[in-house]
Amino acid sequence: MATVDHRRSVGQGRTATAGVPARIRTFLDRDRPQTPCLVIDLPTVAERYADVRAALPEARVFYAVKANPAPEVVALLVRLGACFDVASPPEIDLCLAQGACPETISYSNPIKKRSDVAHAHRVGVRLFALDSTQDLEHIAAEAPGSSVFCRLLVEPAGAKTPFGRKFGCSADMAIDLLARAAELGLAPYGVSFHVGSQQTDPDAWEGGIAAAARVFRALAERGIRARFLNLGGGFPASYLEPASPLPVYGKAVRAAVERHFGGMSPELAVEPGRSIVGDAGVIRSEVVLVSRKSYDDDHRWVYLDVGRYNGMAECEGEAIAYRIVTPHDGGPVGPVVIAGPTCDGDDVLYQRTRYQLPLDLRAGDQVDILSAGAYTASYASVCFNGFPPLPTHCVSDRT
Ligand SMILES: *Cc1c(COP(=O)(O)O)cnc(C)c1O
User: Fold this and answer.
1) How far is the CA of 85 from the centre of ligand 1 (A)?
2) Tens of pLDDT along 65-89?
3) How many whole angstroms separate alpha carbon 67 and alpha carbon 84?
């Protein structure tokens, strides 16, 4: 059972909004936007992009658009020279509309319709992931001459939101798929894998890198020179449970590439989503009610106006434990269950993770959920139970 002492994040004596980036605080104080809402600090996005670049300078950075598809975020990353990892035609069109060149787009989703491959090719995308024969045939037919990389199935421990076995194939199968790609007139560019999101173990890439090196060698024996090693995402944002800083990840990954690839020096790529936008966002939410279920209940229920369906999807299974800031931080606290506003019994954010919130917390108080820039607005439902999707406001130095 996860046990989190909330006081660790809201510590005694700190101001109510400690941890909220200054520009976001200014915007919230001045504009008083309707809650719930997500506010993204664009300069933090730029900073985190620079951090990823610095941690792995030899790698091309493909931003995983699904983490936060706000047009302002994509436009900023276009200006900074990022490439983009997309999963669907609408994500491709979003990147193009924000000024990305099609050559900077990687269609990294191995699960796609034939018509989606055709759309991507029509608008200029020439780089595709695959993990199956059927998708390979679709790409050969609808995107002739394109470069393809094969996703390997890896299942390292340590990820807060693992991918399970949905994506990727065995190394043996990858070798055959890439060899077949060459026969079909495609460029067998290399391999990718993803260690699962919010990966807390910097050594989790080792197994995938070792498997990738085996694929490269086997292809070389067949006269095929693979070049592309796409290390996926998985780099962390700052939640209650601390993770290692990015340079530690960079060092571990680089050492593993050295160890398994030796002199082959592949072209490296990463596909960070969470680590680029997670810490840049704050969700401002209002306390709807605070109640108890019986006179002797030892914990209170705190109902927020944000829940599983309008932004807090990653609370499923309590995978991600966000840091929460309230106006009463510093005062006495007690145990709480935190829940969302809808009439759905699953719309509970935390009941096993032991959050402690101030005893003074009341209906109408505004609370801030920190590091909420990734997988929040993009996961919000259309309008479940009449609660609209989470709106996003972006702030910058010019705001
Ligand atoms: C979601 C996804 C990513 C981003 O993962 P993070 O853990 O957010 O960095 C990268 N690559 C692929 C293929 C993905 O599906």
Assistant:
1) 8
2) 999 999 999 999 999 999 999 999 9
3) 12
Judge whether residue 41 has pLDDT over 50: yes
CB of residue 48 inside a 6 A radius of ligand 1: no
Q: Is the pLDDT of residue 197 over 50?
A: yes
- Nearest in space to 71 (alpha carbons), one of 88, 93, 46: 93
Give nearest CA residue, ligand 1 atom 1: 64
Protein residue closest via CA to atom 12 of ligand 1: 232
Q: How confident is the model at residue 263 (pLDDT cuts 50, 70, 90)?
A: confident
Examine the residue annotation and report whether 343 is marked as an active-site residue of this protein.
yes
Residue 209 structure tokens = 């890198």
Mean pLDDT of 334-342: 98
Which residue among the candidates 95, 150, 315, 343 is catalytic per the annotation? 343
Residue 199 has pLDDT above 90, yes or no: yes
Ramachandran area for residue 100 (φ above 0: left; ψ -120 to 50: alpha; else beta):
beta
Atom of ligand 1 nearest to the CA of 67: 8
Fold assignment, 42-277: TIM Barrel (3.20.20)
Span 147-163, average pLDDT:
95
What percentage of the chain reaches a pLDDT higher than 90? 93
Domain ranges of the chain: 3-39+278-395, 42-277
Q: How far is the CA of 24 from the centre of ligand 1 (A)?
A: 26
Query: Could you tell me which of 272, 270, 305 has the C-alpha nearest to residue 375?
Result: 272
CATH, range 3-39+278-395: 2.40.37.10
- Residue 196 CA: nearest ligand 1 atom is 7
- Ligand 1 atom at minimum distance from 192 CA: 13
pTM value surpassing 0.70:
yes
Question: What is the distance of C-alpha 222 from the center of its chain?
Answer: 36
Q: What is the DSSP letter of 80?
A: T
235 lines ligand 1 (CB under 6 A): yes
